[in-house]
Each structure stands twice: as structure tokens, then as C-alpha cells.
Amino acid sequence: MRTERPLRADARRNRERILLAARHAFAAEGIGVPLDEIARRAGVGPGTVHRHFPTKEALFEAVVVEHLEQLTRDAREALEADEAGSAFFAFLIRMTSEAHAKQDLADAIAGAGANLGSATLRVAADLREIFAALLERAQRANVVRTDVDAADVQAIVLAALTAQRQRADTTRPDRLAALVFDCLRPNDPVARSQR
Amino acid sequence: MRTERPLRADARRNRERILLAARHAFAAEGIGVPLDEIARRAGVGPGTVHRHFPTKEALFEAVVVEHLEQLTRDAREALEADEAGSAFFAFLIRMTSEAHAKQDLADAIAGAGANLGSATLRVAADLREIFAALLERAQRANVVRTDVDAADVQAIVLAALTAQRQRADTTRPDRLAALVFDCLRPNDPVARSQR
DNA sequence: GACTATACGGGGCGACCGCCCCGGTTGTCT
DNA sequence: AGACAACCGGGGCGGTCGCCCCGTATAGTC
């Protein structure tokens, strides 16, 4: 059973063009962008888009998976950093500023988009795993309160992202996000005074 | 110039029915609900909805204004409470849990809905004014950090709402919201230990 | 350079939704 | 009770968008 056949050159080129246009379009305006608009920006016909990605969700997923994989790589790097606390919080900031410029990620995290397929679920599971390790390490180092779990933090990341988008601050873009993340720090004065 | 003519009895009854149905529909699913669905739930024809509210935004606004007015009343009450800090934070929690059950408010705050009319803007300005007073009082009492303004707090309310919706906790529905609001408290250990 | 499979493009279908109009009905006032 | 005006209901129009089909062009192969 030949599951894979090499794509023709022009087909591969068009596929890349579509993905590039979709990246920008979804990043700028979220999942609401019409497919025809993406096709127009990519310089191909609407039919071509549909052939490469049978449904709109499929295209959206392809873009989101790319971003999630990038985040997973970032999280792995953060896990190798020395200082547990700063690595954790820096990664949180990175997630929000990343998703800030990429509306699609926010849509995906919020689940506003659609029912995502198995590919996305697998990548998301990977990210969650690394992320949980990062969190646990920060909690052991007593820089993050211990009464929150990974899902809580994920919700708070989405929250910070919302705040940031609501009140775009050009001079200090991460100000509100950093403020919100402060609520994750432990309560005891000793730990707080260390930051 | 007779600007006002008393509405006929059945017209007034239908108007109330539509508003009631719209309240529930918008609260449950946000602004995305089709007008025909609201008409169906209200037990009237789609044309009737359109006659009472010339556009969809008009109906949405009518519902949102009701909620904003309620919130404004709550804020005024909170301003008369004795303890500045608990009044402020209790009002924040109230806002989020209110908006939690009312998707429409979240849409309105986030501006996701549409360009709102002058009526909404006026009510929103009222609420902002009272809210700013509430915040300033809490800041003077040293229970809220002084490097945030009302717009920051509004963004954070929206953020807390997002977190709460993301991770619905039936046993402690306000847990995440309260957690997020903690980031508004001052940093110095003395003030923090008082809570 | 010719032949075949593969891919392209754009026109079009169906669904959805907001908005509007018209024939019939019902409330209201004398 | 009768007459008039206000109101109701539902069908329909126009626009949008996702999805698909088919005639044509083109890349890859001998």
C-alpha cells in the first residue's frame, strides 16, 4: 500500500504558499478569515486550497500544530535552564507574547475554533507534559505556589493573554501579563521578597 | 411633537418576551445566536423581533445595558461599604461571576460584539466612573497596588473571567478568579500578610 | 518532443443569517 | 359593536462562506 507519493513540484510550492498565507492571515485575524481570502493572498485559486486541505479546520490545524511544536521546543529549552523560577516565568511570558501576535493560538487554546484532530491533540499532549515538568520544578524550588496545577496555569496563561490583548501597551507590552503571572508566586513574604 | 406613544398591550408583551429570550440566549451563547432562534424561543415571528429592534446590535445592546446598569448599582453599593479592600475585591468577584454566566457581557467588554451605540457608552462611562472611585479608595487604603489604573483592572477582570470560563470549577467557581485578582494586591509583606 | 497523470482555476451549489415586506389579525377607542 | 390603526407572522431577498466539480494547463517520463 503506497501511502506516500512524492508531490509534484508546483503542488509542493503551492502548498507552501498556502501555508505561509494562512500563517499570516490566521495570526492576524484568527480563524475567522475566509478561505478565499487566504487563497487570494497565496495567489492560488480557492479550489487549490481545498484540494490540499480538505476542510478549513485541517488548514487551521496545520498552522496551529506548527506553533505548538515551536512552543514545545521552547519549553524543552526552558527545562534545561539553571534557574527554575526565572525559566518558568520567562516561558509564560514567551507563551503570551507569542500568542499575542498569533490570534490563531489564542483561538486554539480557548477552543473557540473547532474540534481539533488527533495530530493537534498529540502535539498538545506533548506540550502539556513538558509544561507540567517545568511547573513542578518551579514548585519544588518554592517559586510557584503549590495549590495550582498545570491546567490552572494554562487557564491563567489564556487570561494573561486576554488582558494583554485588551490593553495593548506598546512601550511595555508584557506589563499586564507579568502582573497577572505574579499571582502564581507563593504567599509567604520570604519567597516574595526574593524576586 | 409626540415622540412617545403608548405601546399596544400585545406589543409590549411581545417586547418583554423577546428581551427575556434574548437575555437567556445571549447569556448562554454570546452574540452568535441567530435572531430566528431568539424569535423561536420567544414564541414570536422573526419579523416581530426586527420591528422592535431594528438591528441585531440594538437588541444586543438593550440586553447589555441592563446588565451594565445592574453592575453600576452594585458598584454604588460597594462604594458605601465600610471596608475598602473587601468591598473592592468582592465587587471584582461579583463582576466575574456575573459575566461568567452571561457570555454577552464578556463579548461586550471584549468589544468582540460590535460598535456599541451611545446608550451603552453612557452607561459604561457611568460604571467606569464609580469603578474608578472604588479602586482609588482601595489604593488609598493600601490594599491595592498603586501602579495600576482602572483600565488595567478592567483588563484583568476580563482576564479572570477568561480563566474562570476556561476551567469551570463547580465546587469552587471563583477560585481562579480570586487567584488572579491577588496580583492586584501590594507587594510589601505587611500588607499581604493582612489578608 | 509526445504522452499521461497530476494539479490548477474559477464558477457554482447549498446552507446560514440578517433584514424586510405584505396579507391577515387583533387590540383599542368611540 | 363597528371602524381604524397598530401589530403579527412567515416567506423571501441578498450577501457570505465553505465546499466541490470539471475543463484546461502543465509537470514528469520515455
Describe the structure.
- The structure is a homodimer of 195-residue chains.
- Chain A folds into two domains: 8-54, Homeodomain-like (Arc Repressor Mutant, subunit A, Orthogonal Bundle); 63-192, Tetracycline Repressor, domain 2 (Orthogonal Bundle), CATH 1.10.357.10.
- In chain A, 71% of the residues lie in helices and 0% in strands.
- The first copy, chain A, is built from ten helices and no strands.
- The mean pLDDT of chain A is 87.
- Chains A and B meet through helix 8, helix 9 and helix 10 of A and helix 8, helix 9 and helix 10 of B.
- Chain B binds a DNA duplex (30 and 30 nucleotides) through residues 7-11, 14, 34-36, 44-48, 50-51, 54-56.
Give a quick precis of the structure.
The structure is a homodimer of 195-residue chains. Helix content of chain A is 71%, strand content 0%.
Radius of gyration of chain A: 19 Å
| CATH architecture term of the largest domain in chain A | Orthogonal Bundle
Tell me the greatest interface.
Answer: A-B, 25 and 25 residues
Shape descriptor of chain A: elongated
Q: What's the CATH H-level superfamily name of the largest domain in chain A? A: Tetracycline Repressor, domain 2
The counted number of beta strands of chain A is 0
Provide the CATH top-level class of the largest domain in chain A. Answer: Mainly Alpha
Helical fraction of chain A: over 70%
Write down the overall mean pLDDT of chain A: 87
User: Main β-sheet of chain A: number of strands, strand sense, barrel status?
Assistant: none
Question: How far is the first residue's CA from the last residue's CA of chain A?
Answer: 59 Å
Query: How many distinct domains of chain A?
Result: 2
Multimerization status:
homodimer
Contiguous runs where pLDDT drops below 50 for at least 5 residues of chain A = none
Order of helices and strands of chain A: HHHHHHHHHH
